[in-house]
Each structure stands twice: as C-alpha cells, then as structure tokens.
Amino acid sequence: MPNTNAEKGDLAVNADEIRHIAVVGTGTIGISWAALFLANGFDVTATDVRPEAEAALRSGVDQTLPSLDRGGKTSRKGVLRFSASLEDCCRDADFVQENAIEREPEKVVLLSQIDAVARPDVVIASSTSAISITAIQKACTRPQRVVLGHPFNPPHLIPLVELAGGEQTEAWAIDLAERLYRRLGKATIRLNKEIYGHVANRLQAAIFREAIHLLESGVASAEDIDRAVTEGPGLRWALMGPFLTYHLAGGRNGIRGFMQQFAPLQQRLWAELGGPILDPALQALVVEAVDKAVAGRNVAEIAADRDRRLQALLIARSTPAQTEGAG
Ligand SMILES: NC(=O)c1ccc[n+]([C@@H]2O[C@H](COP(=O)([O-])OP(=O)(O)OC[C@H]3O[C@@H](n4cnc5c(N)ncnc54)[C@H](O)[C@@H]3O)[C@@H](O)[C@H]2O)c1
C-alpha cells in the first residue's frame, strides 16, 4: 500500500511551500509550462541541451505571457533563470517538471540524472505523452517521487493534467503534484493504472483514426471532417464528456434509455469503424489533404489563432452550469 502524504515522514516539501520550479527541456511544452509557472508567481530555472534554447525560451515566454493575463497585460510574477547545467537547474528547486525529448532510453537516463541532483523531498513530474512512469523511474535512486504530470498542448491554456504513478511511485508524490497543479488552476485527473498514451490522447486517437478512415474512404474532405467536429460534437465536448453526452442522448431516462434504445445501433457503428494503416501512401494522402485545408496558413499563424480563440472559449465556459432550478 503506498504511503499517504501524512506518512511520508521527513520528506518535508508541501505543495503550498513550493516557490521554485525546475523546467527540464524547453521545447514547445517546456516553454508553455514555464510561462504558466511564472505567471502564477513561481520562480523558474530552466535547462535544455540545445545551444539556442535560452533565446528561444525567453522569446517564447515573452510571447506566451500576455495570453495568461485576462487584462491583456504581460503578467510575469516570478523570476526566470536559464542554466545549461542540469545540476544547477534542479539543485534548489522545490518541484521538477521534465519535458525533454519523447524517447524512452533518453528519459530513463535523464530522470536518473535529475533524481541524483534534486533534493530528496522534491517531486519529479514528467510530461511524457506515452512512456510509462514505471519505465521512466526504473534507474532512479528515489523512484517513489517520480510521477506523471501530463499536460495537454498548450499547457498554459488547456486546463487538463493527467496524473499517474509507476509501480514504485508513492501516493504522497501524486497528491503533492495534484495540489500544485490545482494551485495553477489546472483540472487534474488520476489514472488508476498506467496505460499507453494515458486517457485524453487515446480518446483523441480514436477520433483521429476514424477521421482518417473517412478521408481514405472518400466519404468527405479533410475540411468537412474537421467541420463535422468543430461545428457539431466538439462544441458539446467542451462542456461534457462522452458519458454525460450519451446520458442526454437517451431522453428522459438518460443513459438507461440510451442503452435500451440504442445499444444495438452503437454496436453496429463500432463494428463499422475503420482501422486505417498509416503506411507511406496513407501518410501522403493525409498530408496532401491537410495542406489543401490550411490553404497556405503557416503553423505559427494557426496556433496563434487557436490560442486567441481558446482564451475566449475558456472565459465563456467559466459561466457556471445551470444545473439547479431548471425547467
Ligand atoms: N507536443 C505536445 O503536444 C505534447 C503534449 C503533452 C506532452 N508532451 C510531452 O512533452 C515532452 C516534450 O515535448 P515537446 O513537444 O515540447 O518536444 P520538443 O521537441 O519541442 O522539446 C523537447 C526539448 O527537450 C530538449 N532536450 C532533449 N534532451 C534533453 C536533455 N537531456 N536535457 C534537457 N533538455 C533536453 C530538446 O533540446 C528540446 O528543446 C515529451 O515528453 C512529450 O511527449 C508533448
């Protein structure tokens, strides 16, 4: 049975005492985490192995910070430092967020290096999209403090963080990470057991698989398949997930009514779903279709537009749900 937070004895850091966060790996995800931590008043020391990483981090953070201030002003409340030395980065940190390259052998070595230099009371969270924490923690001397803290891109805006432990993780470490993420306004979910790709990416992958199947089968264009999501179920998905959505599909009797009425239809739909093979020919077909759909707009332009509209959506969604007194 894992230890609870109260049982962790002399391991003293508690989430409310965290002031200084180490960000290891400053690509897309590391920059976004760093901006979020800084905007929330944490001091950040970051490290990366790329020679140009510091300049990219500083300009990336400067570009990201304004989107974290609802008043439209840059809101850097913490201090940002960069060090090319992993030891220097992690030595004084109260929490470590690792966001380096997604390759298992490299992550295993890197996590053991972080473990060797971070204070023993410090939780190390990995942003890994698919590698298991059981694998990542295996070369650590203190594997009990290694957790999954998987954000959704872009972490500075999307609330979700998926939490999980590996076989050697102790419960207090997950509790602490969860409390820290909640201080940042994140919405956390906990996985009861590890699974490849965690939860949200698996759900996305299921939709993407069928989208590619529909494209490959010539049912609709990439633009129209995307539109079928953004103008249809995607709008509801920002408010309720699949279980609640289907609860409402069953009429007055909710999910019971749905099961009575639609279980056979659902089973038939599942049997009909495609299983595309992403061979070079299908990859080329998808690339061509997306190139046509974006019509020359570059990735940075589309991402900036997404972030602007995401902010508006998050503000609109913060209106409380009217679940009482309706009707
Ligand atoms: N991109 C996404 O949508 C997304 C979403 C959630 C989680 N993640 C996860 O976050 C992590 C980072 O992804 P990304 O998209 O930012 O990748 P990225 O390639 O943009 O950045 C990775 C960075 O890590 C650096 N790096 C590599 N080895 C290092 C080392 N030993 N020490 C320090 N820095 C090192 C690289 O130089 C690079 O700057 C991955 O584990 C990925 O699975 C990615």
TrEMBL record:
Domain (3-hydroxyacyl-CoA dehydrogenase NAD binding): residue spans on this chain: 20-193
UniProt xrefs under Pfam families: 3HCDH, 3HCDH_N
Record domain 3-hydroxyacyl-CoA dehydrogenase C-terminal: where: 197-263
Keyword Oxidoreductase: yes
Oxidoreductase listed as a keyword: yes
UniProt keywords, alphabetically: Oxidoreductase
PANTHER family, sorted: 3-HYDROXYACYL-COA DEHYDROGENASE FAMILY PROTEIN, 3-HYDROXYBUTYRYL-COA DEHYDROGENASE
Protein name as annotated: 3-hydroxyacyl-CoA dehydrogenase NAD-binding domain-containing protein
